[in-house]
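--- STAGE predict ---
source: upstream dedup step, 1 unique chain passed
mode: sequence only
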Amino acid sequence: MHRARSLLLALLTLLPCHAQRYTFKFYGEEQGLTNLGVQCFVQDHVGFIWVGTQNGLFRYDGQSFRQFGMADGLPSNRIESLDESPDGTLWVGTRVGLARRAGDRFERAAINGAQGVYGRNGIASDRRGNIYLATERGLAIGRQDSPGAPSFSLLAAPGAPASSVYVQANGTVWFGWGSHVFRLI
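--- STAGE serialize ---
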């Protein structure tokens, strides 16, 4: 009798537990996303979703995608990394250069000593106005405190590419370099 009550109680407690269902919506060519080789994406402070693909940058406004490419000022159509800095600037990294959004166009920013941005997490920024880049020559840093495009300088050139960069909320900078992880002090 006690065993039957225990079994009944166990079964009754399981009734509210059921498998949760997830729904997914596919976004593709019908919505204007003409390249499905997605590399990275970010949501900006206005709410747009920016999608970097193997053949262009796309902005989703909630209904459709708009494509941006080299004709709009991007250094390449193959987008490696995206970041929005605290001041609202959208940064776009490619293996052959870096650009920042200026209205409906993009302006190139020079990376002194390196060609482009590497890795899906190749751009990060902090609240002090610093922008960090993982490049084929190592970690680069730039400062955005003037109206013109910032100049980026290589911190070091170890012979191995930096693969990613991350800035914690407290401002600590972490980056991948070769087969190691480093913290900027």
